[in-house]
Amino acid sequence: MSNEPCLCGSENAYSECCGQFHNGEKNPPTAESLMRSRYSAYVLRNADYLLKTWDVTTRPKEIDFSNETVEWQRLSVDMVKKGGSKDSKGLVEFKAVYLLDGEEHVMTEISRFTKQAERWFYLDGKVKSISKANQQVNEGKNAPCSCGSGKKFKRCCGAN
Predict the structure, then answer these.
(1) Using CA atoms, how far apart are residues 89 and 32, in angstroms rounded to an integer?
(2) DSSP string spanning 10-43?
(3) Is the dihedral of CA 15, 19, 20, 25 positive or negative?
(4) Is the pLDDT of residue 135 over 70?
(5) Which bin fits 117, alpha (ψ -120 to 50), beta or left (φ > 0)?
(6) How confident is the model at residue 3 (pLDDT cuts 50, 70, 90)?
(7) CA angle at residue 140 from 137 to 144, to 5 degrees?
(8) CA separation for the pair 109, 120 (Å, rounded)
(9) Cα–Cα distance for residue pair 132/22, rounded to 1 Å
(10) Buried (b) or exposed (e) across 17-42, using 16+ Cβ within 10 A?
(11) Which of 63-67, 74-78, 135-139, 154-158 has the lowest mean pLDDT?
């Protein structure tokens, strides 16, 4: 997979993009690069990387992909606010397209990131919408969780 295009949609080779973060060679330098690498980790069902890059204050105990039925298709970044090398916080809004039961869905999420000891971590995210065939299905905390657990966001990653 190392010379294949990266799953995050950057148009770089996986080994030169998210692969170097997944294998621990480097840490993502920006909030956006962390978000992209986490998307790729979801595609690859790399729970270890997801947990390692999740802020300890909001991190779940485990991520279980055993009942995963979502097939992630592509990612687009809509907005980045801060999250650069000199920032301590960042915000990234993105759309992730996935197949569920053979139907295409689009999830829009705003994710928050924090930097500690020169490393970026995912803090939390708010699902803005989930669309199916260009129809809005649900929004916010009642939307299916973006981690693919099959639970509502408020009962999964959104639980405080």
Answers:
(1) 11
(2) -SSBGGGTHHHHHTTSS--SSHHHHHHHHHHHHH
(3) negative
(4) no
(5) left
(6) confident
(7) 60
(8) 18
(9) 31
(10) bbbbbbeeeeebebbbbbbbbbbbbb
(11) 135-139
**What's the rounded Cα separation, in Å, for the pair 119 and 149?**
27
**Type of residue numbered 9:** G
Strand partners, 119: 116
Tokens read off for 147: 């981690």
Instruction: Show the tokens assigned to 36.
Output: 């992209």
Domain locations in the chain?
Answer: 14-155
The CATH number for 14-155, chosen from 3.40.50.2300, 3.40.50.2020, 2.160.20.60, 3.10.450.50, is: 3.10.450.50
Q: Is the C-alpha dihedral spanning 64, 77, 100, 22 positive or negative? A: negative
The structure tokens listed for 128 are 């803005």
